[in-house]
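Lab channel / #folding
Pinned by the channel admin:
"Please post every new chain as: sequence first, then the structure tokens as a reply. Keep commentary short and put observations after the output so the thread stays searchable."

First post following the new format, from NK:
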Amino acid sequence: MEPVATRVPAGPLFPIGQGERSDAARNRQLLLDAAEALVREHGAEAVTMDAVAKRAGVGKGTVFRRFGNRSGLMHALLDQSEKKLQAAYMFGPPPLGPGAPPVERLIAFGRARLAGIEVEGDVHREAETGTERYSSAPFNVTKTHVALLLRQADATGNTWLLADTLMAALDAGLVMHQTQVLGYSLRQIGDHWESLVRKVTAPPPQ
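Reply from TO:
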């Protein structure tokens, strides 16, 4: 029997920012946009509380009040990235969004995830530390999506464990090691993801 505890309820999936005044929400987004611009221009190591404050044109204390510390800021950046991917696979066009066969959606999901790691890999690697991330809302929303597509594709076995296994192949730290140390291209890793998805969703031999 599959564990009910890992299932994520429908509804708003990322509550960060709920209940904020509109001006507070705008200020928060201003800081996240500044941090994201620093990542794209100089890499995650350039994202310091001082640098974000300077880029956003606010005092450093404002950044600390909004995010607590650099780790909180990195997690907020990752949440923002996850929201974009979530919107794409929930409401965007196929094959990533609804309307395509489940296997094709799984393949598209993996390739989209890899594309995000290419741009924001250091953010993923720095934010995705510690076992607590496996019980976080972003991780479990994504896991639920993958498990649902596996079930729709009639994959055999425990779809929750299988979802964990598949998502491990998209771990930011591993993907960056594969590209930066082992020399694989993202296209090769994406092709391997597709092969893996097709194998685990293939009908059992008669």
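NK: The two ends are 24 Å apart (CA to CA).
TO: also worth noting, The CA atoms of residues 34 and 56 lie 6 Å apart.
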